[in-house]
Structures are given as structure tokens and as C-alpha cells.
Design brief:
Layout (H helix, E strand, L loop, with lengths): L20 E5 L5 E6 H5 L6 E10 L4 E6 L10 E2 L2 E3 L7 H13 L6 E11 L6 E13 L11 E7 L1 H10 L8 H10 L6
């Protein structure tokens, strides 16, 4: 099913995402300024707006991606379907739809289901995540992911209960935000079982 209101699949991505602006936020998620992505993630980190997308299939499995080894934060770890930062003034769902097309080659209607606020340092790269993370979900019917290899090393479908077990057994194999994002998604609108 194609929705003409969704962004086109895989639009051209900027060459250096680290220079793009992000919205800085206060403890209540109110915008208080902006700075480049790289600056927001340098220690000690600056609280900023982000989004995390979890796509489910009609069998209730969720689509995970393994972050590409060249990512500046938490490279090569398994994570949610896609994530990113809306530019200042850009609606979160719109930015998330564009990023989903860029990273995974998918166009899926998205619904925001909550916020996951977290802070995590990457021991490998030294960068810091301090995010007011909007969690969005969508259901994929028959389309297949076509990931951008510069962004995604691998992908797999997994049942949420199996993912929770894996997160407990080997948390360092996953992005530090994934467990919280999964719980926010599970508490949101129902997805196929």
C-alpha cells in the first residue's frame, strides 16, 4: 500500500550529518535552542530532541537494525528500526519518515506513542547521548527493507519477548536506548500480535 503523503523512498542524504542542527531541550522537552549534532553529543552532552522508530510486521515481530560500523555513536550495535534527530521546526513524524526511507528504504505511516528520556555514554567513542526521544511505531505489510549500507550493517525481525530476553542476557550488544524504546512502544497503540 502506497501513501502519497509519505516521503519518497531513500531521498538524498546530506554528506555530513554531524553538522546538521538539532533542537536543544529542557527537562520538560521544551525547545531552548539549537546546535550541530556533533556538539550535542560531545561530553558532557547536551539534552536534545531525537526520535526512535520501531516497525512491526503483521506477525507482531519488530524490525531491528545493526548500526553500521562507521556510526559515530554506538557503532555495530543492534538497535531499533531507525533513529535520528528532527531539524529545528520540523515535525517529528515527518523527520522520522524521511529518516526511515533513508536508512531502511521503507515508507510506513508512523504514530508517535510516547517519550523516552535517557542519557548514555558510548565507552568506545566517548560521545554522549542525552535525548528527549520521541518513540514512533508503524506496521509494515508486504514491503521489504532495502537498507543503506552506510547506515545499516544488517537487519533482522525478532519477536518482542525474544528481544527482551536478549537485552537482559547481552545488553552491550544493543543500543542503550532500545530497551526503553521497546517498552514505550509496547505501552502505545496495539500492534499485531
Amino acid at each position: 500500500m502506497t501513501d502519497p503523503t509519505l516521503p519518497p523512498a531513500r531521498p538524498a542524504a546530506p554528506t555530513d550529518r554531524e553538522t546538521l542542527p538539532v533542537e536543544l531541550v529542557d527537562s520538560a522537552g521544551k525547545t531552548v535552542g539549537s546546535c550541530p549534532v556533533a556538539e550535542a553529543h560531545r561530553p558532557p552532552g547536551r539534552p536534545h530532541r531525537a526520535f526512535s522508530v520501531l516497525i512491526f510486521d503483521t506477525a507482531g515481530r519488530t524490525l531491528l537494525q545493526q548500526r553500521a560500523p562507521g556510526k559515530t555513536r554506538f557503532p555495530a550495535r543492534w538497535s531499533n528500526t531507525c533513529c535520528g534527530h528532527p531539524a529545528p521546526g520540523v515535525p517529528v513524524a515527518e523527520a522520522a519518515g524521511i529518516r526511515l526511507a533513508e536508512e531502511m528504504g521503507l515508507r510506513v505511516p508512523l504514530t508517535e506513542v510516547g517519550i523516552y528520556s535517557y542519557r548514555a555514554g558510548d565507552p568506545r567513542t566517548g560521545f554522549v547521548e542525552d535525548e528527549w526521544d520521541h518513540v514512533l511505531v508503524g506496521v509494515l505489510d508486504d514491503a521489504q527493507p532495502a537498507p543503506d549500507p552506510a547506515e545499516v550493517a544488517d537487519y533482522r525481525w525478532v519477536r518482542p519477548d525474544e528481544l527482551r530476553t536478549r537485552l537482559r542476557e547481552d545488553p552491550d550488544a544493543f543500543s542503550p536506548w532500545l530497551a526503553g524504546v521497546l517498552e514505550i512502544a509496547a505501552a502505545g497503540p496495539p500492534v499485531p500480535a
